[in-house]
Amino acid sequence: MANSKSGDSVVDRIVRLISAFPQDVGALQLSDLAARAGLPLTTTHRLVGQLAGHGLLETEPGGMVRPGLRLWELVNRASPALALRQAAMPFMEDIQHVLNQNVNLAVLDGWEVLFVERLSRRGSATNRAQVAGRMPIHISSAGLALMAHREKALQASYLAQFSDPDGRLTSGDVRTLLADAAHQGFAQLKGVVDPDTWGIAVPVLNRRQRAVASLGVVVPLQEMRLQALVPALQTAARGIARRLADS
């Protein structure tokens, strides 16, 4: 039930508050949190106090607020992402050991890619993917691998609304990339996010050949070995799919 002047329910405001924490920022000043959530300071203060009482947020001296351990605990209980990470981790470790590069695991959420795991090593290529971070589909090989193996109706809806404010790619470019990924069984992006890197990703397909996740690597352009990378990723993706089916 809505019980604020804006019409937002208490749940709406709590979600806005928790979602206001930006990626890679551990804590925010109460006033900054209120501004990012679009809530009055008094409302934010009250909700933060209530959430802190349940361990979902934590308050620190000086008015700093951070997500609480209780929030992390609840999110990770019986989460589909947790089951996916557990199934994928042995295969991701093998890929990283062989390639010595960043390896990422992602799922599709709307028109964005959500990264649920990433393994990295010192000295590996730059990789903008972060655990619990998001990227638009069209600038991520993971996103293209996922969308290329989803229903045609979903692809059509995605392309119909597509826009790229940065002008990197057109809808025609994305349509071609999706078609190539569907035909080849993997997606690749060369220098779209970082000019010196190449992203390669393959879908993790369930028994109905629907992409439930993607497994990808980011490598330096000069070390690109497509004929070696793709079979290794595809073998690992099949292993992950088998473990998910057995769980």
From TrEMBL:
Assigned keywords, A-Z: DNA-binding, Transcription, Transcription regulation
Species this chain originates from: Pseudarthrobacter chlorophenolicus (strain ATCC 700700 / DSM 12829 / CIP 107037 / JCM 12360 / KCTC 9906 / NCIMB 13794 / A6)
Record-annotated IclR-ED domain positions: 70-246
InterPro entries in UniProt: GAF-like_dom_sf, HTH_MetabolicPath_Reg, Tscrpt_reg_IclR_C, Tscrpt_reg_IclR_N, WH-like_DNA-bd_sf, WH_DNA-bd_sf
Pfam families found in the cross-reference section: HTH_IclR, IclR_C
Keyword Transcription: yes
Record protein name field: Transcriptional regulator, IclR family
Membrane-spanning intervals of the chain: none
A GO biological process held by the record: negative regulation of DNA-templated transcription
GO molecular function, one term: DNA binding
Keyword Ligase belongs to the record: no
Domain HTH iclR-type: 8-69
